[in-house]
From TrEMBL:
Keywords: Methyltransferase, S-adenosyl-L-methionine, Transferase, tRNA processing. Catalyzes the methylation of 5-carboxymethoxyuridine (cmo5U) to form 5-methoxycarbonylmethoxyuridine (mcmo5U) at position 34 in tRNAs. It comes from Vreelandella alkaliphila. This is tRNA 5-carboxymethoxyuridine methyltransferase. GO terms for biological process: methylation; tRNA modification. The lineage of its organism: Bacteria, Pseudomonadati, Pseudomonadota, Gammaproteobacteria, Oceanospirillales.
Length: 282
């Protein structure tokens, strides 16, 4: 995956939650890109997805619905591998940035322009905007920014074709608690008030979720969990992030070695899942 470089700036429009209780990122493209992708933690996240997705998914150049596609890295990753991608994103700023970056990559020959189309749509409206059914849906780092993540899983399951795959990556509430303890925020961890408020420019998720919740919500919607991995299992707990390339390579090797081993994956900052919808009975 290729991190996106952004040089444009936007005046924040609003940091309030939507009526549905969701957090959008209009006005925060620069901060989002700088904080999450132009930093070692973002580079590691993309490197781990590049490593894990071919292991955890059956990829046959099938059409992909990328829900909450953000700055467009994941959509680009699939397009580069021959998939036709529909990228849905509610933030106009994010969508404009992603489409511009995709156009540059397309002009450079990374993929054909017609492989990517865009929907300015929140997750809740996708049953009307992109009903499918879809054989492959990706929804990465989205559930933690919606007010009703359980309902979001139900919506995603309804869009999935029988035999289809759902690649879901979520912000891990248990890792957030552990991180707060390490930082000395003992009362915050003890009270379990870990959610962000979704206001100002803070990027603490408003709805971090647990592995147990994901298991329950998947089962409630008739989905089968095929695989799970932790992303950034070690990096966020380091006292001194590696500065030398050799240390960074060692950290990446550690992340790859333990991302699917119990108990280590359980404290990944993100949890990456593959769910499938069983084939319909004949």
């Amino acid at each position: 995956m290729h991190p996106i470089d952004t040089s444009t700036s936007h005046t924040p429009k609003s940091y309030e939650l939507t009526q549905a209780g969701d957090r959008y990122f209009d006005g925060l493209v620069d901060k989002f890109s700088r904080s999450l992708y132009q930093a070692p933690r973002g580079e590691l996240r993309l490197a781990m997805l590049d490593y894990l997705l071919p292991q955890m998914l059956r990829l046959t150049e099938q059409p992909v619905l990328d829900v909450g596609g953000g700055l467009g890295q994941l959509s680009g990753w699939f397009a580069e591998r021959g998939h036709a991608v529909t990228m849905a994103e509610p933030s106009q700023d994010m969508l404009a940035h992603a489409s511009a970056w995709h156009a540059e990559r397309s002009a450079a020959g990374a993929w054909l322009p017609e492989q990517l189309r865009y929907l300015a749509s929140p997750l809740q409206l996708l049953p009307q905007q992109a009903p499918g059914p879809w054989s492959l849906i990706t929804c990465h780092a989205v559930l933690e920014w919606v007010g009703e993540p359980e309902q979001a899983v139900q919506t995603l399951a309804s869009l999935l074709a029988p035999g289809g795959q759902l690649s879901l990556m979520v912000f891990n509430r248990d890792a957030l608690r552990f991180s707060n303890v390490i930082k000395g925020n003992l009362q915050k961890a003890l009270s379990d008030h870990l959610e962000g408020k979704g206001k100002r420019q803070r990027l603490t998720p408003i709805s971090p979720v647990t592995h147990d919740e994901m298991c329950q919500w998947g089962a409630d919607n008739g989905l089968v969990m095929q695989a799970v991995a932790g992303i950034r299992v070690f990096q966020d707990y380091l006292r001194h992030p590696p500065a030398e390339e050799s240390e960074q390579a060692s950290l990446l090797a550690l992340e790859k070695q333990y991302c699917r081993q119990d108990p280590h994956w359980r404290l990944g900052r993100y949890l990456l899942y593959t769910f499938t919808k069983p084939e319909a009975d004949v």
